[in-house]
Every structure is written in C-alpha cells, then in structure tokens.
Amino acid sequence: MPRARRNLRKRPRGNAAGIRRTLPKRPPRPTSGFNLFVREQRRVTGQTGPNGFRAAAQAWNHLTANEKNNWARRNAPERLNRKRAVQRWVDHEKATRRPPTAYSLFLKDLWKQEERTLAAMDFQAAARYASNRWVALDAATRAIYTNRRLPAGPAPQIAAIVPVVNPPAAVMDMINDAAGVPGGQNLQVGEEVEMNVADLAGIVAAAGIGADPLGGGGNDDGDDDEEGENWEDAA
C-alpha cells in the first residue's frame, strides 16, 4: 500500500479529529500486586527485559497466599484514587452526553410497542417502517416527542406538563382523569405528569391549544394574560 494512503487512514479528519483530542480518556487500571512485585524485583536484582520479567514471575509463584495478599494491599490507595477518578469520568460523560432527539425517543417507544414486528424485518425494512410511522404522526403527537425533556416512560406513557394558565374546569377534569389524580384534587400549575398519548391528544383538541400540548396556550406570543383569556372563552 502506498505510504500516503496508509497515513490518510490513520489520521482522523474534520470534527472527528477534534473530538478525539478533547474527550477525556477512561482512567487507567491501578497497578496490581503482581506488577508491584515485579517492579520491586527488577529494582533489587537489576535484571531488565524479558529475562528479568521471567525471573520475577518465578519468584512470585513461590510466594505464599498471605505474601501475595500483602503485595495486593499495597496498592489500596491507588485503587481508591482510581475509583474516584472513574466516577468523575462517568459524571463528565453523563454531563456532556447529547440529549436524545425527538425521533430517537419515538423509536424507543415504537420498539417497545412493536418489537415483534420490527424484529422480523431486516435493518433497511425496519428503518423504512419506522420512518413512515414517524411521518404519519399527527402534529400534536409529534410535538410531545419534540418537547419532551424527561426520559421516555413505559410505552405508551409520555411525559406532559400541566399548562401554565388556568384551564376550564372540563379540561382540567380531563387532565386529572388522564393522569390518575383522585377526585376532588387538582394538579398544580407546571406539575409534570405522565399520561397516555391518546388522552393528551384529546385534551389538546378539547382545549383548542393547537399542536403544542406542552406549550400551555394556543398563541405563540408568550402573553400569559391573553392565553388566560383564551381558556376562559373556551369554557
């Protein structure tokens, strides 16, 4: 293979190169008791290279179980430090992870609902099937996935938020019933609940708030007073 082509394959391009340079690496494993013993044996005997390693390994095999445990306990501080470093690394990974897209949330729910159907298809057929199902969603249901910020719950449950304005009593009763709230109690404004997609779509239609069930109003101008007037008119 020509040298230039071989070098091109080894060198990452574009954003991939920057990502590989900036993402933190998982902390290395702590030094084992065996490796500590080998390192000490090489220092004492002055032997290096393969011969020094073989000599140290043979000496290790002649140690008793208690002696080996003593060497293993010597790296306890290193193991503790490494455990803390791994936890910091995991926390960083979680903090920098991209949030799921609306389509990925939809795919997760679709797989839960139609696992057998999708499992019987090859990858391309399943991808086309899922894409067609996504395109066929009505605007209200798609908005649920677009606006959802919580992890997907058990299908077909979805996360929803009570509107920030006071809805008519009939609409509030529909919300309470869909969310399973006992009679005589009301959800608080802005409270997050889970309800069935079909239930929420029916609430959206009854309230007349358009295709954004999580937005809390039919207008996009952000004027809460005007939205409140719309709720009162609907009553």
What features would you describe in this structure?
It comes from Folsomia candida. Residues 1-13 have a biased composition (Basic residues). The chain has 13 helices and two strands. The protein is mainly α. The chain has two domains: 3-96, High mobility group box domain (DNA Binding (I), subunit A), CATH 1.10.30; 103-234, no CATH class. Helix 7 packs across helix 10 and helix 11 packs antiparallel against helix 12 (197-207). Residues 1-22, 150-165 and 205-235 have low confidence and may be disordered.
Write the layout of secondary structure elements.
Layout: H1 3-10, H2 14-22, H3 33-45, H4 49-61, H5 65-73, H6 76-96, H7 102-113, H8 115-119, H9 123-135, H10 139-147, E1 157-161, H11 169-179, E2 192-196, H12 197-207, H13 224-234
Antiparallel strand pairs: 1-2
